[in-house]
């Protein structure tokens, strides 16, 4: 009998973390998407890595490429607690032109292909391929068990999403036995689930393979000069065509088990989605529970003093409601509603802040009024700054989405001062 707890020990997880995340605009000008801050004290990649640790998978490798310095620094500082003498590790595999000096990583499959010799040295029986840029909680050991018991050649994690949101995902059709019968990568007009015209079955970018089978697939893909060397475009469609791909819905393994009728998964790949997912955490009963001690999210964090609220010079304390506030923050007599304040944020007196995501080391000048904003790390907002009230003015100074979310970065503020 196969036990779910045994399979993680025979598995290595490969986290694909090289993407730029261009739909996040200036938020990824200085960092890769998996390194973007999320949820008050975390980085996006922490969720996939924490799922591995909590699932019993303690052999991981992170493949990086685009502007990876802050990501690598985060992993070195916050994820160095694994025991090498117990064969536990997180290996860092940046693009090195290891196979051909003419190419860096050309696609997700190529990134793994260029490290096949390293993978063989690890000696895994199964390989779990993960996207490093989604927010969710999942027990991968249950997905591994499903893969082994089904006899599939490849198992693909999937979830139902609003149909038009699936334009950024792989979309699949499945039969009654969950065999994948068709797979389209990022279709402009995603096909709907039969009987659910407003929903599509989207790929989560999670794949389970037998190791030797994956090595052969990748060697064949490398030999194909017409291939884009990408899992979604090339590798998975081939497995589907051969009849060896199984769909694994998130509701079979999401955490906690009580959420499986409505599993939580977010692709925070746009400014709007990123803003909304952060603010969801400030709700009275958020769908994603960060306070679950049975499935913690691990990360690196500075040793900071507790957050502090002090009155202004008139003795007024201000009010807060539905706000996440991290260590090192100081709030002086201001009103804050529905907001996420990351570490070391200072809010000066008489500010009004609503529906704001404010990243670390930011100072909000006295008397500022902010609404529906994402403030990048290290911003210094001058006294009396107003954002979120005049759409035309916001669009001239900053990046404003079609739904009215305003992204502010230090570079934008510097241009404003220079002008």
Describe the structure in your own words:
- With 419 residues, this protein is an alpha/beta fold.
- The mean pLDDT is 91.
- Helices cover 23% and strands 28% of the residues.
- Strands 5-4-1-6-11-8-12 form a 7-stranded mixed beta sheet. Strands 15, 17, 19, 21, 23, 24 and 25 form a 7-stranded mixed beta sheet that branches.
- It has helices at residues 45-55, 69-78, 108-113, 116-122, 140-150, 211-223, 231-241, 271-280, 391-397, 410-418, and strands at 11-16, 37-38, 42-43, 59-64, 89-94, 126-131, 134-136, 154-162, 170-174, 180-185, 199-210, 245-249, 265-267, 308-310, 320-325, 330-332, 335-341, 346-347, 352-358, 363-364, 369-375, 380-381, 386-387, 399-400, 406-408.
- The longest helix is centred in the middle third of the chain and has 13 residues, at 211-223.
- It is built from 10 helices and 25 strands.
- A hairpin with a 5-residue loop joins β24 (399-400) and β25 (406-408).
What is the tally of helical segments?
A: 10
| Cα end-to-end separation | 70 Å
Which structural category do the helix and sheet elements fall into? Answer: alpha/beta
Radius of gyration: 22 Å
Q: Can you tell me the residue ranges where pLDDT is under 50 for at least 5 consecutive residues?
A: none
- Main sheet summary: 7 strands, mixed
Shape: globular
Quick check: average pLDDT?
A: 91
- How many strands appear in the DSSP assignment? 25
Q: How much of the residues is beta strand, in percent?
A: 25-35%
Helix content: 10-25%
The main sheet orders its strands as: 5-4-1-6-11-8-12
Protein name: Glucose-1-phosphate adenylyltransferase
GO molecular function, one term: glucose-1-phosphate adenylyltransferase activity
Subunit structure: Homotetramer.
Family: Belongs to the bacterial/plant glucose-1-phosphate adenylyltransferase family.
């Amino acid at each position: 009998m196969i036990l779910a707890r045994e399979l993680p020990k025979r598995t290595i997880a490969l986290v694909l973390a090289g993407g730029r995340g261009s739909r996040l605009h200036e938020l990824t000008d200085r960092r890769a998407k998996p390194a973007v801050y999320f949820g008050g004290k975390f980085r996006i990649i922490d969720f996939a890595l924490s799922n591995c640790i909590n699932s019993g998978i303690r052999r991981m490798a992170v493949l990086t490429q685009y502007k990876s310095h802050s990501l690598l620094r985060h992993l070195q500082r916050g994820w160095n607690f694994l025991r090498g003498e117990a064969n536990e590790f997180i290996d860092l595999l940046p693009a090195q032109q290891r196979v051909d000096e003419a190419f860096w990583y050309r696609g997700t499959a190529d990134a793994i292909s260029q490290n096949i010799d390293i993978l063989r040295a690890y000696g895994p029986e199964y390989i779990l391929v993960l996207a490093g840029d989604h927010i969710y909680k999942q027990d991968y050991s249950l997905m591994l068990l499903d893969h082994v018991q089904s006899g599939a050649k490849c198992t693909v994690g999937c979830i139902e999403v609003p149909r038009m949101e699936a334009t950024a995902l792989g979309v699949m059709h499945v039969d009654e036995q969950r065999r994948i019968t068709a797979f389209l990568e990022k279709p402009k007009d995603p096909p709907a689930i039969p009987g659910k015209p407003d929903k599509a079955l989207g790929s989560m970018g999670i794949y389970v393979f037998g190791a030797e089978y994956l090595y052969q697939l990748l060697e064949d893909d490398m030999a194909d000069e017409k291939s884009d060397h990408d899992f979604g475009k090339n590798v998975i469609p081939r497995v589907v065509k051969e009849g060896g791909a199984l769909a694994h819905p998130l509701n079979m393994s999401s955490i906690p088990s009580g959420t499986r009728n409505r599993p939580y998964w977010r692709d925070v790949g746009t400014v709007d989605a990123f803003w909304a997912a952060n603010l969801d955490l400030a709700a009275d009963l958020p769908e994603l529970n960060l306070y679950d001690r049975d499935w913690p999210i691990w990360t690196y964090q500075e040793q900071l003093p507790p957050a502090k609220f002090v009155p202004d010079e008139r003795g007024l304390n201000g009010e807060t409601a539905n706000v996440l506030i991290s260590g090192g923050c100081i709030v002086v007599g201001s009103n804050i509603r529905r907001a996420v304040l990351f570490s070391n944020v200072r809010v000066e007196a008489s500010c009004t802040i609503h529906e704001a995501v404010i990243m670390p080391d930011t100072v909000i000048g006295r008397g500022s009024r902010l609404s529906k904003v994402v403030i990048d790390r290290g911003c210094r907002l001058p006294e009396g700054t107003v954002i979120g009230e005049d759409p035309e003015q916001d669009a001239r100074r900053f990046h404003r989405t079609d739904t009215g979310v305003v992204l502010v970065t230090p570079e934008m503020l510097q241009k404003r001062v220079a002008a």
